[in-house]
Amino acid sequence: MNLVTIALKSIKQRLLSSSLTALSVSxxxxxxxxxxxxxxVVTELFNQKSFGFNLVVGxxxxxxxxxxxxxxxxxxxxxxxxxxxxxxxxxxxxxxxAVPITIGDLTEEGEFPIVGTIPEYFELDYSYKKxxxxxxxxMKTPFDAVIGSxxxxxxxWDIGSEFKxxxxxxxDHVHEEKFRVVGVLKSTGTPNDRTAFVSIAGxxxxxxxxxxxxxxxxxxxKFRYTVPQSLRDQAEKEKQPKKPDAHGHNHADHAELLxxxxxxxxxxxxxxGDTGFAAIRLAGEINEDVRALAIxxxxxxxxxxxxxxxxxxxxxMALTSLIIAVSAVSIFVSxxxxxxxxxxxxxxxxxxxxxxxxxxxxxxxxxxxxxxxxGVIGLLLGHGLVxxxxxxxxxxxxxxxxxxxxxxxxxxxxxxLLIVGSLIGFLPGLAAYRTDxxxxxxx
Length: 443
Description:
Blueprint: H1 3-13, H2 15-46, E1 55-58, H3 63-70, E2 81-82, H4 83-90, E3 95-107, E4 113-117, E5 134-136, E6 144-147, H5 149-155, E7 162-163, E8 165-166, E9 179-185, E10 196-199, H6 200-205, H7 213-222, H8 229-239, E11 263-264, E12 266-271, H9 277-288, E13 293-295, H10 297-338, H11 343-351, H12 356-397, H13 410-433, H14 437-442
Parallel strand pairs: 4-10, 6-9
Antiparallel strand pairs: 1-12, 1-13, 2-11, 3-4, 3-8, 3-12, 5-9, 6-10, 7-9
């Protein structure tokens, strides 16, 4: 009979206390595994090495706010940019591709963010060398839509489904226009999965999305564009009261928007050339102007990870480490307190020929088995906890977490637990080593 078998039999004799001490280790390991997995997914999401574009251009303000709103759709966007500014950047000699987006509305069902854009958006890789894949097609007509995998799964939508938008996310303010799904994106593990993309032409065509001409003129003047007199005259006519219809409502003529009335929330730019110098120069040129802000989202989100997410991760890791430490103390107390009850058992083993070193090794093996057994159970419970929490996290934050994701740091837990188990068992094992055989048998 080897040492492990003897240690297992000893654990079975005190099954209740052994199970409780192993459970305490399991809970600590469970939390640590869950933290490692979630941290790995969040780090990959917010700390991507590159995107399919070099710069994001938006209104003046905070760089982090622009990244969170335009890329991750986690924050409300600032004041929109004139469409003419997008056309200006599109003609810039350093720009290879410029893609505008408009955000602000939500789907009536599921309240997923709406992004109005052009088909060229899907020509930009969503991550490094990871192109979009779609079942169906991309937008071809103004009221076509392409939806992310999460939108399709939660709302039960497929190609041919139709949906409406809520204006500015206000539930009781639903637009009458309907968009038809023509494509469903394959899962990307990014905010694109929880986004409904619509044709930007259709987005502009929705009633109440048009910019009043007088406001559009003020915005254009702020951006130093020359406003033709004909547009000013048309704005003056808009100020005149409209005659009510048979229902008592005033309706403006539902004509196609002028370019001067169109707005974009942000612009994704891909610069020419393989190096990043063109993007740096262009960002500097845009930021020197007072009209807009250009950012490279990679360092911005890296800063978010280090300042906020990184600190939260350290706090959670420290908390779970303390839980494991408390569990280790409980195992030590349990084994050490049991030594007085096991003196006669140890005396019999010694009388039957067991050496002091063998008794010492059995106690160490017992402690190590409790830690390793608790670790294995904690590993399984940790992935189970992630499986339970992932739908909640996905619905609330839009972050997709695969419960089967394996973090290499999980492997480090077991050597650590083995060392901890050996240290825990050292003093009880030393007490067993020093047990007097005659005194133990006389008890």
